[in-house]
Amino acid sequence: MNLTILKLKANMLLASIGIFLLGFALIFAVVSYFYGLSFAPLVIVGILSFLIVLDIIQWLFGPYLINAMYKTVEVTPNDPTYGWVVDVVNEVAMYNRMSPPKVYIANVPFPNAFAYGSPIAGKRVAITLPLLKMLNKDELKAVLGHELGHLRHKDVQLLMAVGLIPALLFWIGYSLMFSGMFSEGGGRNNNAGALWLVGIALLVVSYLFQFFVLYLNRMREAYADVNAAETVPNGAENLERALAKITLSTDPRILEKYKKKNNNNIANMLFFSPIEVNEDIPETSVDELIEYWKHEKVSWFSDFFSDHPSSAKRIQLLEKLKYAFPA
Fold first, then answer.
1. What pTM was computed for the model?
2. Which end of the chain is less congested by CB atoms within 10 angstroms, N or C?
3. Is 147 a catalytic residue?
4. Rounded to an integer, what distance in angstroms lies between the CA atom of residue 243 and that of residue 162?
């Protein structure tokens, strides 16, 4: 196995285990102190069960809400306009050795593609109209290789499970703070001041744990890039071009920023979609932007607040994968 991929897998495993162990150790210690060692598991299981039920409901019915928000329309192979998209999705699904997901077109004014689904809604992939107009078939296959990678790796389920940790910290913190506000008297289990302060501290810690979840999410996105490079012919090259086209369509002045060497890393953490998306991207601009990204020195905190790696990091990873999975 390629060393870059092996390192990525090891980091994902360690991050997942670390979040669970650190989170549960902190939760158990706090709950045991205030509620007693024998009663602590009941409190944790009770709150955790409530959160799991909420997560499952959201997971089961979320796809229908997504369809409503993105104004998606399901596409069939017989569709005279977009039937070819189903063929492309089926081809990429074949590369991934998985059953093809349902295909939807999203009528929204920005370029994007995303995979989603649930046991009752089935596996789905949606592509927005601007992205369809912007990419050629090979670039679209690479993007779909990334999206189907999320389905193949069960990223939604993993991130839902990991997300239970900050949610559990939040609800226990909220419960302690609420108990502190209304409790009376003294004693270890009835110390209003301590309950309130520890509750506030747990709310803060739950927020900090979100950064661990973001870190894991960025690695899952990188792993989906690996999937595109590994399963789709010439996937790394075409995913690079797709990323460049999407960026140029939403930030037409990005090349000027690079040329003036006035690139602001903080600005890169934010995403502002223009009123009109430029769907006609010159190939020379695509080549130029990719070349800048290849040689950009990216600081470790450039994507700290993002759920996706910075574009430069993604391109530099894809460059390494070209040698692992040659066209």
1. 0.89
2. N
3. yes
4. 28
